[in-house]
# Entry
Amino acid sequence: MCLAVIDEIRYKNTIMLYSRRQTLFYLTALPFLASGCGIRALPPVQTEKLLGLQRSPQLRPITVGQSWRYVQRNGFNSEVVREIDEVARITDQQIILERSSAGQALAPEIQTRTGGLLQDPYWDFVQIYDQALTVWPQSLDPGRGAVLNTRYRIPDFSYTFWIQTQLRVIAWEKIQVAAGTFTSLHLQRFYRLDHYDFTRISTTRYDDYWFVPEIGRWVMRETRGEFRRSGQRLMDAQYEDHFRYELVKMQV
# Structure
């Protein structure tokens, strides 16, 4: 049996299991959501726009041994999901951010040595891009942006899916997180993509992150998205998970 056929069979079986798990989760959660007992969404990220910044902070490349710890929160109810530790390892061609939580290994983030994102583990499925996404633009001036059309795949499958990303520089902003107060560049990446779940259509995502050049990494990140299924009206969009990641500790 050819590889493409095997992939398709495994793909459909995985999606059926994934969809059943989602349905069971929402049915279980429904009574709690309906009761509204103390559920409170995260407030918007608080920052201070820095107008007239005379000189952009110098960008520091990621180096071996740098580490960061983030707390992950659920954007819908403000609850802490987990803490995630990242440690930088560098090869000739790549920067590998090895990730773990409570001693359990997580899928790594992988970048090129020049700051391109090759593997992003921060979504429902790990996304491995055919062409690296820009982590930070060449120009750090607010208002700049870039559009990229490429394809991605998920681990253990050879089939690829279309994805379009639009990276936009929002503003230089002062932001306070648990690890300290930083001068950050607020960037927003907008996604349109064909999802691994073939029952979905019109999947869109927003990825806001506050990148600090002096440490070569973001100190706050917020991910969210929505989609429709075939036959649903535009007003019946369903929401993906909404998460916020905040830097609580680092070693640079």
